[in-house]
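Internal ticket #5521
Category: modeling
Description: The requester needs a full-assembly model to guide mutagenesis choices. All entity lines are attached below as received. Residue total reported by intake: 269.
Assigned to: D.W.
Attached entities:
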Amino acid sequence: MERFLEGKGCLITGGASGFGRGVASAFAERGADLILVDINEELLHETSKNIEKETKQKIVPIVCDVSDAKQVKQMAEQAFSELDNIYVLFNNAGTGAAYGVDILKVGEKAWDLTMNVNLRGQWLIDKYMWRKMSRQKFDPLRGKIIHTTSIAGRVVDPLIPVYSISKIGVIALMQLVAKSLAPYITSNAIAPGFHVTGIYGNKEDIMIQTMKDGNVKTPLNRIGTIEDVVDIMIFLASPRSDFITGHTFPIDGGIVDVGVPPNILKSDI
Ligand SMILES: NC(=O)c1ccc[n+]([C@@H]2O[C@H](COP(=O)([O-])OP(=O)(O)OC[C@H]3O[C@@H](n4cnc5c(N)ncnc54)[C@H](O)[C@@H]3O)[C@@H](O)[C@H]2O)c1
């Protein structure tokens, strides 16, 4: 395994579970020391301990609500005092409320929670991390930011209306940050499709039901895995992606861009 992250620090929000946890293990295996940020204190400590034990890298858990500016500011200060650099920032924490509710009937609490965590949260993380990242002495890039949007940010999904709006916002944020931080820091986004993680209670049947509700068929005829996301994240964290900024990478088995109508696909899932 290429240890291309040796000597590099990585900060991962939503690091306790799902994509964040999978990517954390993969980055630590490639030599990175990590700051793992999450609101779920118990799971965060468990994940951090496990990865530290398996990889012998330095793993620092920081409990922080990414939608709270004060907490994000403090977290960013602590992160740079624990590690001497943050080369990769995986801006990934997310949540969703108001499943299956028409956009015009969504409650204000559900709107605020989803928008605050998914969009305000990613903006706050960029806002309080970029300055120190941009002063780092790495060459040719001083750092990389990777945001997590969704296929629902590529094509609006009426079953998850507020989530869709928040994830479209993440793509806009990612592109604006790419302009602001060029040529020193790249900014990209991943757009996963349907993968069993904490967002579905780690239950495949719940995820399959949401796919059925939305009449979703997958051209590549299987559900997504956490490893599918880890693979593209390894590429985006590596020097092999150094000439890429401002882009969104779907990992969805072709759902969004192949986009053929479900009734002509020979697919079970
Ligand atoms: N699972 C999928 O199929 C899928 C598809 C597209 C996009 N996504 C996105 O992937 C990202 C990661 O989610 P996941 O699927 O791994 O789910 P997950 O629930 O396993 O992980 C999300 C993590 O974010 C944390 N979190 C939630 N609110 C937070 C807050 N306010 N502050 C700090 N941490 C907070 C949770 O505690 C959890 O550990 C999210 O942005 C999600 O929207 C997931």
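Resolution: model delivered.
Comment from assignee: The chain has one domain: 9-252.
Ticket closed.
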